[in-house]
Structures are given as C-alpha cells and as structure tokens.
Amino acid sequence: MSVDYKDTVFLPKTEFPMKAGLPKREPEILQRWAEIDLWGRLRAASAGREKFILHDGPPYANGHLHIGHALNKILKDVISRSQQMLGKDANYVPGWDCHGLPIEWKIEEEYRADGRDKDQVPIVEFRKECRDFAEKWIDIQRDEFKRLGVIGDWDKPYSTMAYAAEAQIAREIGKFLMNGGLFRGSKPVLWSVVEKTALAEAEVEYLDHKSPTVHARFPIVSGGGELEGAAIVIWTTTPWTLPGNRAIAFDPESEYGLYEVGEVAEGSFARRGEKLVVATELAGQVKAAAGIEAWERVGGKVSLDGVVCAHPLRGFAEAEGGYDFDVPAFAADFVTMDQGTGLVHIGPGAGADDYIFAVEHGLEIPHTVAEDGSFYDHVALFAGTVVYDTEGKSGDANGAIIKVLIEAGALLAKGSLRHDYPHSWRSKAPLIFRNTAQWFISMSTNDLRQTALAAIDNTKFYPPQGRDRLYAMIAERPDWCVSRQRAWGVPIPVFVEKESGEPLRDQTVIDRITAAFEEEGADAWFASEPSRFLGNERDPADYEQVTDVVDVWFDSGSTHSFVLEHRDDLEWPASLYLEGSDQHRGWFHSSLLEACGTRGRAPYDGVLTHGFVMAEDGRKMSKSLGNIVSPQEVTEHQGAEILRLWVVASDYSEDLRIGPEILKRQVDAYRRLRNTLRYLLGNLHRFDPKQRVRAADMPELERWVLHRLWEIDAKVRTCCADFDFHAMFRELYNFCTSDLSAFYFDIRKDCLYCDSAESPRRRAAETVLDETYSCLTA
C-alpha cells in the first residue's frame, strides 16, 4: 500500500483564493471602503502633513467615460495614493467642466428633433435644461470613476456650474477688466458657421479636405521699374478670401524672377507675351500648373521692395470701383517655398498671420463674411454668396469668385488640393477665419506673455519635452479670444459705454454682479435688469450689456481660484497638473495665462502629460473599425484592477495601446503577481512574528533577498517621486517572477515543506517571506 506523506510536510495553506473573480469582488471592496469611510480616515491620519495637491483637470459632463478617461483618472489615483504612502497629505478633489457648446449642442439636437426653435425659448429656461443635463452626467460619471477604484472627495467635488464657481469665474474676468487686460477688438478668429460661434484652437481638429486653388494675377502699377506692366502671381487654397486682399507678402531671402510667356497649351488662361513674377524656386511648378509650354526669363534676380500692385478686380466694371485700391508688397518671414508661387496674398480679416502682418504695416482690416458664412452686402460683386452654409456644406462663394476672376482676365490657373484643414471637433464641419468683434485678453498688456514664459521656466515638466511645447505655444500665440456667442456659460459681466465704446471699469459694479451670481448663479445676468448691477449712480440707457459668454477654457483655467484657494483642505499653487498631451494648448495653457494674468505665476509647480490611447495595432479607435475598448466592458469582464495594471505597466509618456491581446497579457501578469502573494500567504500561515530571525543570523540566500528588497524599496520611492510607474512595475514584476518564483521560492521549497518547525533555516526563510509580503503589498 502506498504511503500518503501529505500530513508529514508543511504544505502552503491560505484562504486567499486562486481565482480573483474581480468583477464580483471589486464592488464588495468598494462597498467596504465606503462603510469604513476610508477617505475620511485617510484625511484624519494626514492632518498636519506636508500637502501634495494634484488638481483635477475637469472632464466634460456629457457622456459615458471612454478609455482615455480611465487612463487619466487611474494615473491620477496611482499618483495620489503613492504620495499619500510617501507620508504626505494627498487630498484629491475631483471636478467637472459643465458649460459650453457640447452640452448646448445636445439640447439643441433635442429641440431640432422635436421641431422646436431654441431662439423662441427664454434663455434662463434653456440654460436650466443645460444645467440638468450636466448634473445627470456628473452622477453617472462619478459612479463610473468610483468603479475604477479611484478614491477622492466624491461627496464634495467641484463643478464649473456651481453658483460659487460661476461667481468666481466672473471675478477673474473682472480682474482682467480692471487691470486693462480685457478689451473688445475686431480680429480674425476661427469661426464655426454651423455652431454660430468663435472656437478656441483646442476645439479644432485638422481633417482631410478638398479645396479649390487659384493662381491669380496682381498687375504691378508702380515701384517696379523694369517690372511695370508685369503681374505678380499669387496662389491660394481659399479663393473666397481674395475680396479681402490688401497686400502681398514675399520672402526677402528667396530669389524672384520675371518670366515672359511664349507658347501656351490649349485651354490655358495664360497669354502669350505677358510677363509674370514668381519665385525662381517654384517657377517650374507655376509653368506646369498654368499650362505654359514655353517662357523666357527676362533679366536676373528682381527686387520686390517698394512694388505696388492693383487688386485683380481693379477696373472690373461690375465691381463699381469696389476693388480700385493699391495692393503693396512687403517682406515677411512666414512665406515658404513649399508650394504655390512664393508670393502670398494677404487677407487681414481671414487669418492670424495676415492680421498681425496688416497691423505691422498699417493696412485696413476688412469685414467681409457674416456669422452665417455669407458675404456682407457691402462686398462688391459677391454680396450674399456663401463660403460654408449652416450645415457645413461648401457654398457658392468660391465658384463665384473664380468665375469673376476669369471674366476679369485675372485668373492664371485653377485646380484643387487635398490637405489638412481646420474643422470643429464637435460638428466636424470646416471652419473659416472671420474678422469679428470679440473680447480678448491681451498678451502684451501687463507683460502677460513674458510672465507666462518665466512661469514655464519655473515649472517642472514630466516628461521634460512638455516644457518646450508649451513655451513655443505661449511665445507665438495671439491675444486670447475669450468670448463666445452662445447661451450656456458664464456671461462676460461687462457693460460698454455707448458713447465712448469703452468697457465700464468699476469694481463696485463687478462686486454687485458677483454677489448676485453667488446667490442665484450666472442666470442672474440674463434675468435681471441692468440697473441692478449699475446702481443708482448710472443710467442703464447709456450702456450696452454684453451678452456673450466666456470661453469654457477660461472657465476651466480659473478652477485653481475657486478650488485650490477657496477650500481649507487644499492649497495654492497645486503640486501637479496632469492631463493628456493635447492640453498644452488646452487646460495647461489657459490655466497658466489666467493665473499669470491675475497672480503673476503658474497655478502649478509641475505638469505631467500622458499620451493618447490607441488600438493595439496602433490605429485610432473608432466605431467604424470596431476597435473601441470601453472601460465599462473591461471592468465587467476582467475587472478594474486589470485596467489599473495596464496603466502602470505602460509608458504613459507615449501613446498607449490597448486591445484584447494586450488585456490578455495584463490578465496573465496579474495572475503571476497574485500567485506570488498567494504563495507568500500560504507559507506564512504558521508564522509567529516572535520567531523572527535577525538578518545577521540568516543564511546568505535570505540576506540576498533582503538586499533585493532594500534595492527595490529605493527604486519604488524614486519612481513614485518621479511618477515613473512603468519602470516601477517592470522592477516589481521581474522581482516576483524571476527573483522570487523562479529562483528563491524554487530553492527554499524543500526547506519550507520539509524542515522542522524549529529549524533556524526555516525560520529565517519565513522571516524573509513575511518581510517580502509586507514590502510587496505596500
């Protein structure tokens, strides 16, 4: 009969199950945290410690969480927990961004589906529907974030639509009003015809787009010497901007030539004997595009300094003199030789570079296009034609302009080009640059630009290259357009004196406005008579009340003021801001400008950026490709801990990938780590801490494991301080799978199973297992 030796050896014994059952187990853990008030106990235990404040960049309250939200919030949670365990008071207060066009657009969609007209609904009633919509999604997203294991002050989060927040946002605008930084000006801004508002750069994406192209002649009328009688040729992908042309730009470092046309192909708009000026480097391209079969260069390098041209439509009878003005040529450093003619037509009202160029040279900034995408009545020849209609479709303006150029003999060539073009990330409709009256915060008044650049130099960036990206954006950015022509947001609380056109700068008025907002919310601006704010000393008839709302990036950029400064359990500035790399032009950017303009420094000491989440084949996630991974599905099938493991196992400084195979690998990694802990527990079930052995009395193998724990502890602390969790995970995973499972456990298995209970070697091994378990769980 065989002998059963099982009862003669010390086999591992533990109630810690082999299978995790995370989808079922995790909600039970979350419930226990709630029952014992884990968050409250952490705060009580942290009283008096050095604070570590990770200020939450507010997600938008308008839909279920996606995988990017999960990455962001889990990374924040890992950082807050690790800083707490390093001995700090890491109080994490989550928040939500609640105003703005995405929510307003959703309510408008519901109106359109019901056949209702938004403009017929009282604005306060419409705003309430927007508020209710945001509140609903805050509750939904809060539960989804908590399911990911993220701990924070979920009972007292912040939101930009809270009355106190709206009041503070108004105060912050008031600070710029009072220090002279806020002004109303007419500048070209990116405009959505579909959404009827200006857009911030952060609301813009560049998509493939087919544009018509034209080569147009600008006849030289003076200052050209041997060039008189010739024409400068420009090339543009936006023919609709030509009615607003006021100058031509050339590159002072490049060579230009004068070419006399010989033979032309059938159907060409070129004329034999005419003389054209183009960049030497691009002459071949122009010749081919225009169907010119032969031409001859006349003379050598030509100078364009002092050259003045006529608009292509000067003298065209039907224009009735609408284009009978001079078009001077000036040098500019933004002209490139990538394509075109090397000569750029300047439409000051249709582009940021063009506007700056026009201001430098004292040129007119014309208003040509209305908010509905049509040309104003005063635009000769093209009044009423449409660039893009209210559905985002191309209108008839480009076609009308090309037709008139042909009739006027001003067109040299036409074609089309596929290229990246600005679109609204919301409606996906193409945008236009449109000269319109907006409210701006000046980058030069109060030295805002220089203050912000200095603040960047005093900020630590993770990874370091984030500094250069943000610095370049601030160094080059134009004045900040903070007004939006919408309904759902914090109104710009300004009155403009009708006689002078100047904004009223009166702190008493600002204080009345913000006091009303504090009690009733920003609806008070629309529900009250102006006299409530202007007081008895001013006649409301003398003032215009501004109805624009403030850009939502100003909202979120002000959160530091009503979260960090107004809560006793936080402090200003934040230790860290953490968001995706797109926020160099978004939240990092607007928060920096807002704080520098009102407090003289950045609202953060450090900035951490993570990449975007891609499908596992490196492609962008999309419904059409069927490669979307939702956090809800992962938590339902594998558990939130697998998502959390994926976050720390990935190098967040680059774009991250996720998909079925990657998740499978994380499940396997989790199982290996879990089995390591289970093995430790199983062999410690008989261990009595009183039996611990001093390191000096241990065998060499045990002392080596303790040495490795000491090395890993230092590595973990360094990685936590540097937010380098990818390196930390790799170190811990390799330790568990190689040093422990494949080496130490394998060697000491005989000792742990077969040595006597009093064996010094056994007790030394158990002491090391206990220490290892303590370190790994921490």
Structure write-up:
This protein has 778 residues and is of the alpha/beta class. The protein is built from 23 helices and 26 strands. The strands form seven sheets. Strands 6, 7, 8, 9, 10, 11, 12, 13, 14 and 15 form a ten-stranded mixed β-sheet that branches. A four-stranded parallel β-sheet has the order 1-23-24-17, with helices on both faces. Strand 6 and strand 7 (231-236) form a beta hairpin. The protein starts with 21 loop residues before the first helix and ends with a helix.
What labels describe this entry?
39% helix, alpha/beta, four-stranded parallel beta sheet, 26 strands, 17% strand, 778 residues, ten-stranded mixed beta sheet
Q: How many beta-strand segments? A: 26
Helical segment tally?
23
- Report Rg: 33 Å
Q: Shape from CA axes?
A: elongated
Helix content: 25-40%
Mean pLDDT: 93
Query: What portion of residues belong to β-strands?
Result: 15-25%
Largest sheet: 10 strands, mixed
Catalogue the unreliable spans. Answer: none
First and last CA, distance: 48 Å
Q: Which class do the helix and strand fractions yield? A: alpha/beta
Element layout with pairings:
Layout: H1 22-35, H2 38-46, E1 54-55, H3 67-85, E2 95-96, H4 101-113, H5 123-147, E3 158-159, H6 163-178, E4 182-192, E5 197-198, E6 204-222, E7 231-236, E8 247-250, E9 256-261, E10 275-279, H7 283-289, E11 295-298, E12 308-310, E13 326-331, E14 343-346, H8 352-360, H9 397-407, E15 411-424, E16 432-441, H10 448-457, E17 460-462, H11 465-476, E18 480-481, E19 483-484, E20 495-497, H12 507-520, H13 523-527, H14 531-534, E21 543-545, E22 549-550, H15 552-557, H16 559-564, E23 576-580, H17 587-599, E24 606-610, E25 613-615, H18 631-637, H19 640-649, E26 656-658, H20 660-682, H21 700-722, H22 725-754, H23 760-777
Parallel strand pairs: 1-23, 2-3, 7-10, 8-13, 17-24, 23-24, 25-26
Antiparallel strand pairs: 4-5, 4-16, 6-7, 6-12, 6-15, 8-14, 9-10, 9-11, 12-13, 16-18, 19-22, 20-21
Helix pairs in contact: 3-19, 6-12, 10-11, 10-17, 18-19, 19-20, 20-22, 21-22, 21-23, 22-23
